[in-house]
Amino acid sequence: MFDLSERIYFVLATILIIAAGIGIISSLFSQPLILAYILSGAVIGFLSSNFVAIPTPAETFGFFSQIGIALILFMVGIELSISELKNIGKPVFLATLFHALIIGTSAFILSLIFDFGILASFYIAVAIIFSSTVIVIKLLDQQRDTNSLYGKITIGILLLQDLFAVIILMFLAGIGPKGVPFNFLNLVLTFIKGGLLVGAIWFISKFALRRIFAYVASNSELLFLCTMAWALGVSSIFKFSGFSFEIGAFLSGVALANLPYRYSISARIAPIRDFFIIIFFIVLGLSIDFAAIKNMFWPIAVFSVFVLTVTPVVVANYLGYLGFGKRVAFLSGLSLAQVSEFSLIIVVVGANLGHISGEIVSFISSVAIFTIAASSYLIINGGKIYRVLRSRIKIIERNKVAIGNISEKDLENHLLLVGAEQMGSDILDYLKNKAKDTGQSVVVVDFNPQIVESLVAGNFNVVFGDISDPEILEQLNLARAKLIITTVPDLVDNTNLIKFAKEEGYTGPIICASYWLHDAVKLYEAGADLVVVPEDVGGKHVARVLSDHWDNLKAIKKAKSKRFEELISRKIF
C-alpha cells in the first residue's frame, strides 16, 4: 500500500500526533513527559498489533532509533570533560565502584536464582549496574539541581559509569561471537585498535578541531553542520573498525567536551537532541513485548523492584559512610534507580554475538521501561519523598569531618550563613571582615564534607548538616542570632527555616535565595526580608555595568582579566 518513504512518513506522523496528545494530557496533570513518550509508543504498538494496520515500526524506525541513540550518547560525551573528571573526587569514584560491586554481585546471584544461566546472568548483572545519564541529567536540569551537591555527586557517578560501559563494549567487540574459541590475542589487538582510535581522536581534537571550530563558531549553521559531521563521521569510523556506532558517538562528544565552544555546540544540537530523545523513548515504548512480560512477569517485577529499592539503599548508605548528610545521600541514591541506555546497547550487542537470547533483551528492556518510568516520579518528587520519610530513613552515617568546637558564646549575636559554596563564598568573605570589626561570630552551616573541611581548616565556626533536619536548626540558637542568610534555593527548606526562626523568637532580617520568581514571592509571604533570584539580580547587574561604561564600552573588555582572576580565586572549595 505504501512504499518505504511513505511508511516512514506515515508512522512518524501518527506516533508524533499520539505523543503530542498524551504529552499535553500528562502536562495538564503534572506528570513526567518521559512517561508520556513511553506510553505513546506502547499505545501505538498496541493499536498496530490489534486494531489498525500500521506498518511494522521496527521496519521504519530502525534508522531513527540508531541515529537517535548515537546523538544522545554524543551529547552525553560532551558533558564528560577531562577537567570535570579531575574534579569528581575520591568519594564519587569509591561510591561508583562500591555500587557496581554490590549491585552487580547481587543481580548476578538473583539471576541465577531465576535460572537464567551463568552467561546470561553476567549480562543481566552488567546491565543492572548502569543508570541512565540521559534521564537523570534531563530531570536534574529541569529542576535546576545539576549544581546542587547531590546533583554533582550523581552526575559524577554517571560519567564514571559511562566510561566503564565504553570499556565493556570494547571488551565485547574483542571476544567474538558464540561458538568461536576465545582468542586472547584478538582481545588485546581489539583494545590496541581502540586505543589507537582514541589516540587519533585526541590528537585531532587537540591540534585540529580547536582551530576548525574556532573558525566556524561565528556561523551557527556551519557550526551545526561541522558538529553533526564530526559526530556521525567518528561513529561510522568506529563501526567500520569493528566497534559500535554508539562508542564512536560517545567518544566524539568527549573530544569536543574540552573545547571552549562546547556550550554553543550543545545549544545548537539541543533541538535535534530533544527530538531524538522523544523518538528514543517512543521506540522504547514500541518495544514493549506484552507476551514477554506475561511469560517473565516475576523476574521483571523482582528486578524492577530491586533496581528501584536496593540501588538507592546501597548508594545512600555508602555516601553516608563517606560522611555526606542523610538528605544528600538519599537523593543521590534515588536519582540512580533506573536502568541505562548503555544497558540496552550492551544486551543487544550480546544478543548479536549469540551470547544471550532475544528473551534476555526483552527482559532488560522491560525492566528499563518500568524503572525509567518509576524513577522519573522519584527524581521529580525526591525532596517531598525525603521530607515524608525523613524520620524513618535509617542509613549508615559516619561523620568523617572534624568539626571545630562551637561555644555558647559563638551562638550569641551571631551571623548565620547557610551554604558556603558559590554565592555563599562571597557572602562569607564579607561577613568575616565585618565580624572582625564588630566582634561578632560567623556560624556556617553546610552539608558538603569537603567544604566543611576547608572551613574548619580556615578556623570558621561550622555546623555540618542540612537545614531540612530540625535537629540542626535546634543547635543554631536562632533566637539569639543577629542575621540569617541562606543561599540554599530550596523553597520548602527555606520556608521551614523562616517558620522555625520566627517560632524561636528571632526578630532580625532573613535573606534567602531562590531560582524561581514565583518561589521568591512565596518566601516573601512566609516572612523573608530579602530574596535573591540570580536571573533577576544578574540582569540588573548587566544593566548597571552597561550604565557605568556606556560612554566607553571598551572598558568592559579591559576589566575581563580582573574579573576572570576574581572568579578563579573564589574557587577555594
TrEMBL record:
<feature type="transmembrane region" description="Helical">
    <location>
        <begin position="182"/>
        <end position="205"/>
    </location>
</feature>
<dbReference type="GO" id="GO:0015297">
    <property type="term" value="F:antiporter activity"/>
</dbReference>
<keyword id="KW-0813">Transport</keyword>
<feature type="transmembrane region" description="Helical">
    <location>
        <begin position="60"/>
        <end position="80"/>
    </location>
</feature>
<dbReference type="GO" id="GO:0006813">
    <property type="term" value="P:potassium ion transport"/>
</dbReference>
<dbReference type="GO" id="GO:1902600">
    <property type="term" value="P:proton transmembrane transport"/>
</dbReference>
<dbReference type="InterPro" id="IPR038770">
    <property type="entry name" value="Na+/solute_symporter_sf"/>
</dbReference>
<feature type="transmembrane region" description="Helical">
    <location>
        <begin position="120"/>
        <end position="141"/>
    </location>
</feature>
<dbReference type="GO" id="GO:0016020">
    <property type="term" value="C:membrane"/>
</dbReference>
<feature type="transmembrane region" description="Helical">
    <location>
        <begin position="299"/>
        <end position="321"/>
    </location>
</feature>
<dbReference type="Pfam" id="PF02254">
    <property type="entry name" value="TrkA_N"/>
</dbReference>
<feature type="domain" description="RCK N-terminal">
    <location>
        <begin position="416"/>
        <end position="534"/>
    </location>
</feature>
<dbReference type="InterPro" id="IPR036291">
    <property type="entry name" value="NAD(P)-bd_dom_sf"/>
</dbReference>
<keyword id="KW-0812">Transmembrane</keyword>
<comment type="similarity">
    <text>Belongs to the monovalent cation:proton antiporter 2 (CPA2) transporter (TC 2.A.37) family.</text>
</comment>
<feature type="transmembrane region" description="Helical">
    <location>
        <begin position="92"/>
        <end position="114"/>
    </location>
</feature>
<feature type="transmembrane region" description="Helical">
    <location>
        <begin position="275"/>
        <end position="293"/>
    </location>
</feature>
<feature type="transmembrane region" description="Helical">
    <location>
        <begin position="6"/>
        <end position="26"/>
    </location>
</feature>
<feature type="transmembrane region" description="Helical">
    <location>
        <begin position="153"/>
        <end position="176"/>
    </location>
</feature>
<feature type="transmembrane region" description="Helical">
    <location>
        <begin position="212"/>
        <end position="231"/>
    </location>
</feature>
<feature type="transmembrane region" description="Helical">
    <location>
        <begin position="360"/>
        <end position="380"/>
    </location>
</feature>
<keyword id="KW-1133">Transmembrane helix</keyword>
<feature type="transmembrane region" description="Helical">
    <location>
        <begin position="328"/>
        <end position="354"/>
    </location>
</feature>
<keyword id="KW-0472">Membrane</keyword>
<dbReference type="Pfam" id="PF00999">
    <property type="entry name" value="Na_H_Exchanger"/>
</dbReference>
<dbReference type="InterPro" id="IPR006153">
    <property type="entry name" value="Cation/H_exchanger_TM"/>
</dbReference>
<protein>
    <submittedName>
        <fullName>Uncharacterized protein</fullName>
    </submittedName>
</protein>
<feature type="transmembrane region" description="Helical">
    <location>
        <begin position="243"/>
        <end position="263"/>
    </location>
</feature>
<dbReference type="InterPro" id="IPR003148">
    <property type="entry name" value="RCK_N"/>
</dbReference>
<feature type="domain" description="Cation/H+ exchanger transmembrane">
    <location>
        <begin position="18"/>
        <end position="373"/>
    </location>
</feature>
<feature type="transmembrane region" description="Helical">
    <location>
        <begin position="33"/>
        <end position="54"/>
    </location>
</feature>
